[in-house]
Each structure stands twice: as C-alpha cells, then as structure tokens.
Specification:
By secondary structure, the chain is α/β, with parallel strands linked by helices. The chain is built from nine helices and eight strands. This is Nucleotide sugar dehydrogenase.
Length: 207
Amino acid sequence: MKITVAGAGLVGLVTSAGLAELGHQVTCIDIQKKKIDLLQTGRTPINEPGLAPLLEKNLNNGNLHFSMSPYQAYSNAEVIFISVGTKNKQDDSIDLRNIHVVSNTIAHFIENNVVLCIISTVPIGTNDLINKIIDRSKPPNLRCDVVSNPDFLRKGSAINDFFYGERIVIGADSLESASIIKQIYEPLKIPTIITDILGAEMMKYAI
C-alpha cells in the first residue's frame, strides 16, 4: 500500500520504518531540510534503540523514502498518517497549529480518495475539526475519511512497542476505512480495538 507519514519525529519515524518493514511503500515528509537530508543518508537525528538499522534497511530495499515535497508525498498516497508535533502551550493546552497546517496542505495536494489517519496526540474532538478543515479545501470529487489511530509508543522502547504492542486502536465513522487501517497492521498480529472516533480519542487519554 502507498502510505505517507507526515512528521519525522520519534512517532513518525518509528511508524514509517515499521510500516516499511511490513512491506508497504512509505514516504515520510517533514518541513525541516536538515532532518530530511540526514535521513536520506540513512542516519537519524533521534537516538532510539533499533531505529537507525531499520531505517537504513528499508531505505536500501526501496520501501522507505524521505521528502519535503507535498506533491510527491500526498498526491498518490492511499493512506496518510499525521504525526506532527503537538507541544503543550504555556497554559498546558495542546498546540494544534501544526495539525491545522498539515491538514490544509494535504487537502490541497491529494489527487485520489484517501484515508487520513491521526496518530498525533490531540485533544478529544480534534479529529472532527480536521475533518472540517479537509472538507473545506479538498477537491469536491474526492473522498477523505478521517480515522483516529492513537500511538502507544514509549521513548526507549518504541520499536518494540510498534511490533509487539498490547493493542492497536482504530477509531472511524466508516467501517471501510477502519478495515483499511486494520489491514495495514494485520501482519503484526496485535489485538485490534475498533471503535468510533470519539471512543479512540478518549481511549488514548484513559490508557
């Protein structure tokens, strides 16, 4: 499957490397040129056990690519994972500016029907907001289903958590979209919980 991961932080890189290892064609996009230049050489700016060799392996076998081009990353993607940063503001609320920007960019560059999967940590109700942003800007003839797929990756054991985690949570309003995301993770044989979007958002905070 052709997959794009937006954001080359810890979660984005582990997700990109993991999905590429499962055999998918993965493009990871980020706006930081220095980071992308480094990653294209097979090196990583993040010190996470097991990540560097996994990135290098899948770069070499052609399953993984890094880019700064929204057209290259989004135009032909079948599934897009959003994993951009959502740091806390001074008042401890979550900063969603990166989510807004990348959602708007995706809406302008998609050329096919796509499933948009949110793995960034976001407040409850954010996926509904993303859906509205996408609907405002995407071509009217295209379908873009928003799915919540919260991550449960821990720094220091993120690779192990990806491949051997306790659960995969998929929140979707469309059974078809939920099935697509479930199929992506199928080789992992990890128990999968399918719920609605609100349920998935709440589960992230509860767990």
